[in-house]
Amino acid sequence: MYVVRNKKTKAIIHMVNSTPGVDLKPEEVFQGFDPKAMELGRFSEQYLPSKFTIEDGVVISQEKAPNEELDVKGLKAQKLSQASSRAFVERQKLIPDHEMLNAALGVYPEKRTRQIQETVKAFREEYKRFEAALEKARSRKDVETLEPKFPTKLVSASGGESK
Global pTM? Predict the structure, then answer.
């Protein structure tokens, strides 16, 4: 996105979408461009932030990043959602979905089925532990320092991690 604005008043005079890899000269963006009274800026997105500055022809957003605006409750929800997604990804690495389905269908021997069940159970228990720890957290710092500790190996039928 290109924007042309008045240097003194900071009022936007003209805006136009940009094409990636194509750099336009100020006169190509706005035919009446006056470098003494106007400034040209380019933003990487096809919109302009509500608060911005232009430095060396680049639009710099002055808006707070979404994470900065999150309160503790919002940060807790975000961390819990990330933990849930991470749990599924890490469990998938250890036990692909087809193996869980095979275990549920009784295709594997009892020992292998039990190992899969115990590992899935360990992921769920860690998620629940993490969720409870998040609930107890009272500050942003407390929430930010919390991390789930999902299994990194299959859990044996006796309850410990195995190779």
Answer: 0.55
